[in-house]
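Structure tokens please, single chain.
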Amino acid sequence: MTLRIATFNVENLFDRPAAMNLEKWEDGQKYINDCATLNLLLNKDTYTAKDKEDILKGLEEYGLDRVWGKSEFLELKKIRGRLLRYPKNKPAEVVATGRKDWVGWVELTKKHIDDEAIRNTARVIAEVNPDIIVLVEVENRPTLIRFHDWVLKPIMTVMGLEPYPHLMLIDGNDARGIDVCIMSRLPIIRMVSHVDDRTAAGTPTFSRDCPEYYLDAGNGTVIVILPNHFASKGSDAKGNRRRVQAAAVKGIYENLKKSYPYIIIAGDFNDFPAGGSLGALLDETDLKDAMHLPAYKGEYRGTYQTATDDNKIDYLLLSPELQGKVRTVDVNRRGYYAPTKWKSFDNLTSKTKDRLNASDHHLVWADLEL
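Here you go.
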């Protein structure tokens, strides 16, 4: 039985926060940070005079102090109660005394992804045709189903390929709609979430989740897949959170391998192997990344943008029992425009790439002979 497995950070399927869709991730980090800072203030039980001053200052910067406050990058959601008063010909005032007076929040403004870019995402997946694929940065399960049924399945049907009967996403800790999920032709027989795991400081361990999916490969064989998406360098420049997350996944893996020989940990770890934050997984376990096995013959080591070595951030980590069963490892890069390095889809040109790239990431895949 040949089984093709893959991982792909699709950078959302239909709608993506505008702050996360700029040319460089650091360009949008201020908006993401400002959104988080405002929500921390707004979630306080009681607003001091200084809190009210800071709230108003933060809202004013983005025009959110207006009656219908919304900007290109942030918007104010008001559900119930009253946060602001709008005196005639005067600046807005914070009238809520704390969280009990109103229900609402600030969120990142979302922008619809170009239809052809969505189709290019599906084309990448269809070209590889994996039996199991981990997807990163997917909005929610209904969105995953719509993408599969409305975009991916028609392409696969024309190509004579089998679609995916098993689509699963467990909502994680990131309110921006960038969760990890799985599409599989093998039945999912068990699921475990780690969304409530906590660090020693009491904060969520995982930026999204580290779910465990148990897949029935037949004849009593079970494959356990753990999708992951570690903290980004934008929010975790020194890698401290990624170190904690890598160590936590290591602990989960070491416990699982006592009972399950076939384990795959896949996704976007947001650091390259020598980056210093992934040592717990890459150096302190018997896991091996598929792209570092002899079966990978590719010219480039990176999996992000132009595929330089320090842009190796997407991983397929395999337990020892699977490493010896790997026959082929490759990366599909056709959904990203880099004309001097590889042939992209025909609709990707220097003029269209910013709108139509399937993703800034590339799809990593491996064939296993079970």
